[in-house]
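User: Modeling request: complex.
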Amino acid sequence: MLTAGPAKKVSIYVGEDHKYHGHSVYSAILDFLFYRGVSGANVVRGIAGFGADHHLHTMRIERLTENLPIKIEFIESPEKVMELLPKLHEMVGSGLIEIQDTTVVKPSEASRKGAPQPSSLPLRHEGKAKLMRIFVGENDKWHEKPLYKALIESMRANDIAGVTVYQGILGYGANRRIHKEGAMHLSHDRPMMLSVVDTEEKLRAYFPILDSMIQQGLVVLSDVDIIKYAHNYEGDERRKEART
Amino acid sequence: MKLEGKAKMLRIHFGEDDKWNDKPLYRAIVEKCRELDIAGATVFRGIEGYGASTLIHRSHLLSFSSDAPIMVSVIDTEEKVQTLLPFLDKMVGEGLIALSEVEVIKYVHQEGARS
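Assistant: Request completed. Predicted assembly structure:
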């Protein structure tokens, strides 16, 4: 995260049509910055300009695709900028990179509504975690809404890394009553299982909420090793949001 | 019925078409669990999978003959689960039985809440 104080502002000038491994240089650079955790970057398209080759890049000609100037700008700490530079140097090709000293007066903040920043993602590391399984009935309700749905919503609200609901086809639990899917009717009371993986602390912190919601059911916890928690998907979503 | 602290979770994987005494094996297992007073059992139907026979099990949308993968999940104390194992050994002809440790956080039911 960017903090207030001295920082570097990097401006990169490329042409819109310049390519890097088959993609536009600017989008490749933007992706690179995004996945390297740069706190923010902007791409601006100029309306006219010229560079080292002294070709005037302009919109005025009656062509839809024109190699317009593109400026990518981001502000980061000096160390981070130094870390990124070699790769940027390679990507930018014939473009220009310029660095200015700047001062961050107030860093931008991640929007509260949006997904959390990578640094605060609920589960970042591979390794030990807990798997929680919750067994409830399909017809169980919490404040008039299906309990399993309410549980998912409350977990999301509490930043639990992820939850999946499975629908059973047959089962029984504490009350000895068989839950099964009716072959031909619309009203079922199938067993539902929610499977949740997160760190032990996160799950334990969530227990009181869980406890208040589940009037009847079973909750068990077991050890798991996280092999992979791919949050790039979420990153993609965030990036899409950022670009629109 | 009280269940708390350390417990065992048994997961039994087999096919939907597997039978035991002419009834679906999953139903037979649930009935056996009830008979043995096991705390609970839940049957899940998978949508695709393969197992020991390396034959792909898949549920067909348009046909009635499906052999989807089935998973029965049973949770109870170690002793109770052990009483079930010999039966499972006999009943599950082809499949997988896996045992793992779990910690029970909550196990509640309300008398008459559902009836």
